[in-house]
Amino acid sequence: MTTAPTPVPAPASAAQSGGGAPGPAATTPATADATTAKATDTAAETAKTAGAPRPGKPRAVRGRAWMAALPLLLFFLVGFGLPAVAIAIGAFTTSPDAPDGGGTFTTDNLTGSLQGAYWTALWGSVKLSLLTALIAAVVGLPLAQAVATSRFRVFREAVLSASGVLANFGGVPLAFMFVATLGNAGEVTKKFGLTSHGWNLYTFTGLSVVYLYFLVPLMVITITPALEGLRTQWREAAYNNGATVVQYWRHVALPVLVPSLLGGFVLLFGASFAAYATAEAMVGSSVPLISMQIGDALSGNVLVGQGNLALALGLDMIVVACLVMAVYLPLQRRSAKWLA
């Protein structure tokens, strides 16, 4: 009688390996935890070392950024900083041809620039700039909306290209164009008899119409990127919740666009306030403007030896421009948070 051999249990490592070859030695739980922790620490240290910037790298990057902006900073210093300092110094000193020889500290120039005809001219420039900027903003917004939502690429490119050209079209050519068309002897004036209806190009109203020729395109260029930043999901969500077009613009679009609209208005105000050549070529001194008064004081058309008074008038314009920029920059930053 033959007895069957007793089976011998195979080692756990061999059974887990799936073959007859002996597997690795069994690992205890404590050893496994230690190995895992060490591997994790090594991987974290490697990642930290690989991702960490080298010492001095951020400082080097900042240094290169400053070097790239250095030409612009130098240009700003030479083109704006030094003249502004010279204007400020001249505004508080007497003219070189004054009886005392000039160079004496005084506040008469600044005081005189805010009185009489000079104050009238400053206030006239402010009124003209406010009126034209407001009209250009109201007219330019729907046109920019049509450009931003248009499906016709040709229309979009044509309007934006024309706006880019017209926004920079000014000076004597612009004045001549309007004189030839809407002047007292202009073609349009004679054809439609505008003079008999009280039209006069060489007035405050006529000058406002001329300024709108380049301010409306400037508004289109300024506000179009903000309109394109309005997300389609906002409009769709408003319509899905039962909002009308008016409600969408009142409660969603306009609150987001208010900073950009105000920023564009401020930019238009600055462009109108600083314009000189167009008004000088078209109306001369018939419309009191601060830029015209500066030109007259420098050329001696009114009084001789008023050069430093002209510098005081220029300082008044710089102050107004700084106030405008102080309003414009925060509005642009606030608008960028929504439209980014």
Helix and strand content put the structural class at: mainly alpha
The radius of gyration over CA amounts to 36 Å
Q: Sum up the overall morphology in one term.
A: globular
Strand content: under 5%
Care to count the β-strands?
0
The largest sheet is: none
What is the helix fraction of residues, given as a range?
over 70%
Low-confidence segments, given as residue ranges, are 1-34, 46-53
Characterize the structure shown:
The chain has 14 helices and no strands. With 340 residues, it is an all-alpha fold. Helix 5 (116-149) runs parallel beside helix 9 (204-228), helix 6 crosses helix 9 and helix 13 runs antiparallel to helix 14 (307-339). The longest helix is centred in the N-terminal third of the chain and has 35 residues, at 57-91. Residues 1-34 and 46-53 have low confidence and may be disordered.
Short description:
Helix content is 73%, strand content 0%. The protein has 14 helices and no strands.
Architecture blueprint of SSEs:
Elements: H1 12-17, H2 29-51, H3 57-91, H4 108-112, H5 116-149, H6 153-166, H7 172-182, H8 187-192, H9 204-228, H10 232-240, H11 245-274, H12 277-282, H13 290-299, H14 307-339
Helix pairs in contact: 3-14, 5-9, 5-11, 5-13, 6-9, 9-11, 10-11, 11-14, 13-14
Keywords:
single chain, mainly alpha, 340 residues, disordered N terminus, 0% strand
